[in-house]
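Much of the work behind modern protein science is quiet bookkeeping, done one molecule at a time. The fold becomes a row of whole numbers, each drawn from a learned catalogue of backbone shapes. The protein below has been through that process, and both of its lines are reproduced in full.
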Amino acid sequence: MALPAWPEPEPLTVASAPLPEYGGGSLADLLPTLAAGMGVPGTSAAIAELTPADRNCVFLIDGLGWEQLRAHPYEAPYLNGLLASSRGGTGRPLTTGFPATTATSLASVGTGLPPGAHGLPGYTVRNPATGALMNQLRWQPYSDPKAWQPHPTIFQLAERAGVRAAQVSAPAFANTPLTKVALSGGTFLGRLTGEERMDLAAEQLAAADRSLVYTYYSEVDGAGHRHGVDSDTWRGQLMHVDRLVQRLAEQLPPRAALYVTADHGMIDVPFDDEHRIDFDADWELRAGVALLGGEGRARHVYAVPGAAGDVLACWREVIGEQFWVASRDEAIEAGWFGPQVEDRVYDRLGDVIAAARDDVLVIASEREPKESAMVGNHGSMTPAEQLVPLLEVRS
């Protein structure tokens, strides 16, 4: 007697992707809420549960996801205490926006806009003016920052309203195009060590009756990429940043609030052909593709003229059981990049957009050797990547 045939797994649908919480629970909503609480015109309080404060500090820890933080209470006792609403704090997750990657998220933080509006919708995207891929983190090849992202930042709006605005970060970031389009406004203050940044951020908070201060630490992300989440190196960085947060929290001036957040979470992807699908070695995925943008878990795929439909069908057939695969218009209609995609941003998006659901990557071993060798990865809409902490301490 023949056994019944199991049905073939259905490809993931565009509508089944878990959308970021644009408009009330995303990174783009944080600074407008804080600025509105200080009376800054042109901003609104999208995160209703945050109580206004005269002095606000945002400490962004690159790569520290909500799920990773909760999984390591012993390495981060202070931060996990804030999760439990102790020490005078409260904790909840935010979503990063899509894709969950640094350039996109920092632009969302600084402008208060989702990716479809600020126009940094991925790690690498096509520049419609040149037809070439542009790396939006390193800003290569160079493009005019003001033309690429014309909206004012929340720091600029705050400064115009008489709020003291400052960014305290590594000196190397002082004049980068990404800083200019995402975080400019007020005063940039560069300090090499995390401890120096915490002390200076506290000083800047106390320097005016109304202040908005941003500070940043990158090495949790670096350790995850190089060694993996939960590696000894990553755990060591988490222990260090836990002490930095406590150091800053203990120096808050009166009427101040500290908000600890991140730009994305991260997952480790095994090094085998099942989990790392190599675009450069797969003729089916390459067929009809002019440019491969984005990153391993959030791909922008640019088709040769006339081939977009075929590329979409092929990508769905090859990886549609592991990735949400959408056409550009389907992703826009579904709200992946926010409620609206501005006209200048439309052609930066891939003809086909693929977001990983499982612990898989589409790597490009020849075109992207460094990125293809990373242990920890991010970019998609899974909770491990999308959810980031929003932890609050008030004085």
